[in-house]
Structures are given as C-alpha cells and as structure tokens.
UniProtKB/TrEMBL annotation:
Residues 9-84 form the Nuclear receptor domain. It comes from Helobdella robusta (Californian leech). SUPFAM superfamilies: Glucocorticoid receptor-like (DNA-binding domain). SMART domains: ZnF_C4 (SM00399). It is found in: Nucleus. The keyword Nucleotide-binding does not apply. Its main location: nucleus. One of its GO terms (cellular component) is nucleus. InterPro entries: Znf_hrmn_rcpt (IPR001628), Znf_NHR/GATA (IPR013088). Coiled coil: none annotated. This is Nuclear receptor domain-containing protein. Keywords: DNA-binding, Metal-binding, Nucleus, Receptor, Transcription, Transcription regulation, Zinc, Zinc-finger.
Length: 122
C-alpha cells in the first residue's frame, strides 16, 4: 500500500495545479498565492481582452491576469487573513500606546503636583 502520496494531492482551486497549502483562505498553489499577493500589494488593475470569460487553468493561468484574479476572488481568496495579522499588530500597538500614555500621564501628574508643591513652599 503506497498510495498515500497520491491521496495527498490537493488541487489549487484557482488553476488546478498542485496546491502547496492554504493561502488567503483557499487551497492554492505557490503561483496563485504569489499572484494574489502581488495583485493586492500593487492594487493592480487588470483588463481582460476576451470578455472576462477566460478559463483559468494551470497551462494558461498567466495568459489573462484579469480572469485569474477574478477566479481568485470567486473561489474565496481574501486578504482578510493578512488584515487579521495587521489588525493584531495594530491592537498590540494600541495596547502599548495606552500603557505609554498612562506612564506619560502619571509622569505629568507627578511633575505638576511636584511643581505646585514646590510653588507652595516658596
Ligand atoms: Zn494555482
Ligand atoms: Zn480573461
């Protein structure tokens, strides 16, 4: 029984190539993952020359970026996974900032009290 390697084949939901894992919420290949990431980063605007009806397959997936990107969205790819990471970072930053603010607030409270006290003693 040596069929485990064949059973492990998972097709990319965008182009049907061998998926390398779960990317942007969808099982996809390295090519489509990279393509989707680049599209998001550069906020590319693609155009289709064939009425947006191209078949996106492994062999021709580079032919029409518009349809490939459309397919990425259609199968459920989303940058939310990435946004989540960014949100977490933002949240951490916010927490840090809050703590910092408390420290600054305490410090300024302390210093104003200190100053008013020193004014009193004058
Ligand atoms: Zn793919
Ligand atoms: Zn197209």
């Amino acid at each position: 029984m040596t069929s485990s390697s064949q059973q492990a084949f998972v097709a990319c939901r965008v182009c049907g190539d061998k998926a390398s894992g779960y990317h942007y919420g969808v099982t996809s290949c390295e090519g489509c993952k990279g393509f989707f990431r680049r599209s998001m980063q550069k906020q590319m605007e693609y155009r289709c020359l064939r009425d947006a009806k191209c078949q996106v397959m492994r062999l021709n997936r580079n032919r029409c970026q518009y349809c490939r990107f459309k397919k990425c969205i259609a199968v459920g790819m989303s940058r939310d996974c990435e946004l989540l990471k960014i949100n977490n970072l933002f949240y951490l930053f916010l927490l840090l900032f809050k703590k910092l603010k408390i420290i600054i607030y305490d410090y300024s409270n302390y210093s104003t009290n200190h100053i008013s006290e020193s004014i009193k003693t004058l």
